[in-house]
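Work Package 3 (structural annotation) set out to generate three-dimensional models for the target panel prioritized at the project kickoff. During this period the team completed the workflow that converts sequence records into discrete structure tokens, so that structures can be stored uniformly alongside our sequence database. As a representative example, we reproduce one entry of 246 residues exactly as it appears in the project archive.
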Amino acid sequence: MLKTKRINISVVLYKPKYAGNIGAVARAAKNMGIQKMIVVGADGFDREEMRQRSTHLAADVLENIRYVPNIEDALGQFNYIVGTTARVGKARGPFVTPRQAAQKIADISQKNKVALLFGPEDTGLANEQLRLCHMVLTIPTSREFTSLNLSHAVMILCYEIFIASCAAVTASEATPKLALSSELEGMYGQIKTLLADIGFLNPENPDYWMMHLRRFVARAGILSREVKIVRGICRQLQWYAHHKKT
């Protein structure tokens, strides 16, 4: 038995529907050394049902769940966000499997706060939530039955991260601390405004090019000071564009 904790990794459940699933997720996460959970957009679940599904050994995980009203509040203080989906499509990817992603997540989590984001049991994450993610995972399944229970999906991903973490690089070699999600969202909003002002974005579908920009930034992995540089450039370009018009 390996005794280790993933202190910088949190499981984030977006609008879960069933108390039992929250309890089962708490148990699965703690099995793999993850003890932080956030539940978004829902509260008032049957605590007894949650406890029964988690077992008493994961009761501390349940007691420390952070309930937040919206996804922006939930993800704002994370440096790296991993989304999960069973529905694939060109606008939702590119996709990787948990095994392909585990080593990178283990590396990044040494100096960065990482969120593992899971959607509602019936619909999963929509494009609106996936656009907030640096990486999107899909779990390969049999074509005859593709649906996974929420806690099973959490267990599969957390297990792969656990195994990868046992052979992770030393802290001195790990990925440096990245910009927060809240910082990135502020930057994206500023870039979107600038590109709209200069006529680069299609007003009927402005998020199309922004999606590609988000993917580029996610692959690059930028730091807080680099976000400040980009935002400074945007401010200067906006100033120049405004004075050019006048």
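The chain has a mean pLDDT of 87.
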